[in-house]
Amino acid sequence: MVDLDAAIGFVVAYGDAVERARLSRLRTGAPAPAGLLDAAEAGQAPGGGWPAVLDGEVASVDATCYRLAELDDLGGLSRPAARHALDWLAARQLPDGGWDEDPSLAGFAPEWATPGDPEARLYLTAYAGFWLTVAGLDARAAGPLDHRVGGAYAGVVQAAAQALAAQLAPDGSWPSFLPAGWLAAAVLHRQQMYYESARIQAVLADRIPEMSPADVAWLAATLHRVEVGEEQWLLVAARRRLAETQRSDGGWDSDDGHQFDVHTTLRAIRACLPAEPAATPVGPPRVPLQPSARVLPLPRPCRRSLRPRCPRRRCPRPRRPRPRCPRRRCPRPRRPRRRRPGRRSLRRRCPPRRRPHRRSLRHRSLRGSFRLAGPRTGATSPGRPRSSTCRSRKRAPGAMPQV
């Protein structure tokens, strides 16, 4: 994690008055003194841009964008000098949507601003398009019906985005310098060309471990300025890289020498500060639409729409939460599972045949294989089995038994 307190202390200790005013603007949003703003705007050419050298007469696209970056940190992007410079940039756009330096600067221009160089031309197109995009975030609208991204410079920025997208390779690379990548990604993102912007960001993510701290700070500050989102994956990776490369005194190394370490540190602070709330759009307030005098009645719903709908149609029935045991590690007792009867037990069985009930004889001596017939006599009294030769004969009613 970046140590912002140490970085702020480094700027306070080694920065000049302008750099400390930039820090105060980034932290608290306090307006910079008018004298510092006038000093930052000094040397502006009559046409609106700033020359690349002191007391120069020819304005440079690269130098103008650099001055706009300083004025943005000081909160002076809405001043007349900055607006004059933005109008000059919009007027310098070529028919194909790009920008190029004046041919008279070919003798002493750096390699990234050489007139006629295709790589420098792509870099200047991304740089100028970025600052016109930033100015369009808070600028006045071009008209009451113009809702394009970029405000008053919407058409200029849209043409620049098309020119940048046409130069991209299928793998997302670009034939220009490294800073042109994140500047073009920011312009394409604000123009809602998210696919082209994501292709560039994927290439930049692979190169972040090899970038210098100054390049990483510039990349992160650029994406943060166009409001790509705090959780954007490339911005998170850049902040992690800044945390790894921060020095013990709180600053970061610059590629242009130690005299620019404070400038690099200010870019890193801008990249790591939380996003500011959305600014109120500048311009006349919108007039609400007046309702007409005739109020039309609302259509009556049909009978089908008045029928009660099943509550389970759209909203599922809430399930009852499972009871939990008060003891955390005590397993929840489970109910014994009922087993279904098998097929054999489900078969219908025939009831057993009922046998006739025989009354058992009470006495042990009467359990033989004989039967009683006739009245009881001495021979047939209990305890005396009947002789096998005795047989019962039929007798007429009223006849005396034979002895």
From TrEMBL:
SUPFAM superfamilies: Terpenoid cyclases/Protein prenyltransferases. Residues 277-403 are annotated as: Disordered. GO terms for molecular function: transferase activity. InterPro entries: Terpenoid_cyclase/PrenylTrfase (IPR008930). Residues 301-366 have a biased composition (Basic residues). Keywords: Transferase. Gene3D superfamilies: 1.50.10.20. This is Prenyltransferase and squalene oxidase repeat-containing protein. It comes from Micromonospora viridifaciens.
